[in-house]
Amino acid sequence: MRYSLFTGAEGPRLAIGLMSGTSADGIDAVLVEIIGCGVETRVSQRAFVSLPFSDEARTRILRVAAGDFGGSEELCRMNFFLGALCADACEAVCRAADVDPHQVCFVGSHGQTVFHAPDMAMYLGRPVRGTLQIGEASVIAERLGCPVVSDFRVRDMAADGLGAPLVPYTEYLLYRDETRTIGLQNIGGIGNITILPQGCRLEDVFAFDTGPGNMVMDALAARLTDGKLRYDDGGRLSAAGHVHQPLLAWMLRDPYLQQKPPKTTGREVYGAAYVARLCAEAEALGCPLPDTLATATRFTAECIREGVERFCPAQPERLIVGGGGSRNPVLLAHIADCLPGCEVLTNEQLGLDSDAKEAVAFAVLANETLYGRANNAPGATGAAHPVVMGKISL
Questions:
Q1: β-bridge partners, 162
Q2: pLDDT over 70 for what percent of the chain?
Q3: What is the mean pLDDT of residues 133-156?
Q4: In whole angstroms, what is the distance from residue 330 CA to residue 334 CA?
Q5: To the nearest whole percent, how much of the chain has pLDDT over 90?
Q6: What is the largest CA-CA distance in the chain?
Q7: Rounded CA gap, 123 and 114, in Å?
Q8: Which of 158-167, 276-285, 377-386 has the highest mean pLDDT?
Q9: Is 46's pLDDT higher than 80?
Q10: Which terminus of the chain has a smaller tally of CB atoms within 10 A, N or C?
């Protein structure tokens, strides 16, 4: 049975989208004006803010996300702690737009992923997979006084999907093109690509995680600067190094690259343990840390090339790059080099906001939820059928 809080007669509504990614840098909040649903959806951005996590909070989140730290009390308190920070972010983006928070019609919140286990594993005699995003939606609903849609991934996984990637549905609504094949490459902590074939229908949308995005580069930048930097700002650190071909060859033997879509990955694969193995291999090969970072930057681009060449049913004529990685000109140059013949550009070159793109997506997904509309893309997640994702806190 499908339920809807909206009737279709509503005019433009103010909504907030919240996103906190695998890099755990902070909470992105976007205030949008949205009208319609489905392919009639129209969105305009009013304001965007990003509230960085404190070093202490980020360290704690990453420890929990590693999967071997924390228990029920840790998760309980962190859930409400992040819920309060999400509410702070909502109020901050309203201030930026000079809007009363109580004018907001609804919020769509991705939450913070603390573990994502898309592959079946035996647990108490039963094959189980799962995912956990925290950041208590009821705290946001109480502060803003409006419905909050959250916890999107679990419904897709219940329908035998991977619970990721989720953004392709919104990309289909907002970026499809009748005259050419469009690729959308997000580079957050993890990289993910969506292919929108020329004149496509939703069932034609194809998407998967390409592999690490900024996650490995961020960890190496922190090592290289003794923790002074969280990321390679503008690619300046990697530009000072050189790509080490033997180390790159080792990285390209990564089994994830050969795995067929639908597929998804995260910190559980490319987190601290992976970086430790990478650094050990680099040391054995005589590759200094600056060159290791330069090689990891090239690897992110090579992962995109591998994914496009191996698995994409239609080669993109235009690749639109978003996420934090789009701010790294060295990485963008590597991507263009890896995909000759494909126009590589950023959302900014189209008059859009790369930083806000994923937060906007969760506002759009929440809008679909509230209309009672299926909002996953089974061709991207592998779900058995379309489902309405998201839990509603009133």
A1: none
A2: 99
A3: 98
A4: 6
A5: 89
A6: 65
A7: 19
A8: 276-285
A9: yes
A10: N
Residue with tokens 């509410």: 87
* Peptide bond preceding 262 in cis form (omega within 30 of 0): yes
Which residue in this structure is represented by tokens 């191996």?
Answer: 310
CA 379, CA 202: separation in Å to the nearest integer?
8
Average confidence (pLDDT) over 358-376: 96
Comparing C-alpha atoms, which of 136, 162, 106, 113 is closest to residue 380?
162
Number of Cα atoms under 13 Å in the Cβ half of residue 4: 12
- Give the other-Cβ count within 10 Å of 222's Cβ: 16
d(CA 55, CA 57): 6
Q: How far apart are CA 218 and CA 75, in angstroms?
A: 25
pTM, to two decimals:
0.88
How many whole angstroms separate alpha carbon 258 and alpha carbon 255? 5
Cα–Cα distance between 165 and 276 in angstroms, integer? 27
pLDDT at 8: 66
Take residue 368 and report the two structure tokens written for it: 């679909």
pLDDT tier, 3 (very low <50, low <70, confident <90, very high otherwise): low
Smallest CA-to-CA distance from 107 within 352, 370, 323, 358 is with 370
**Cβ proximity of 289 and 216 under 8 Å:** no
Q: In the numeric block, which tokens belong to residue 320?
A: 């639109």
Cβ neighbours of residue 77 under 8 Å, at least 6 residues apart?
none
133 SS3 class? strand
φ, ψ of residue 210 in degrees (nearest 5):
-80, -20
The CA distance from 65 to 250, in Å, is 26
Question: Which secondary structure element, helix H or strand E, spans residue 299, and what is its range?
Answer: helix 289-311
**What average pLDDT does this structure show over 357-371?**
96
340 burial class (0-12, 13-18, 19+ CB within 10 angstroms)? exposed
Q: Residue 1: pLDDT band by 50, 70, 90 thresholds?
A: very low
Residue 98 token pair: 């000079």
pLDDT at 94: 98
Mean pLDDT of the chain: 95
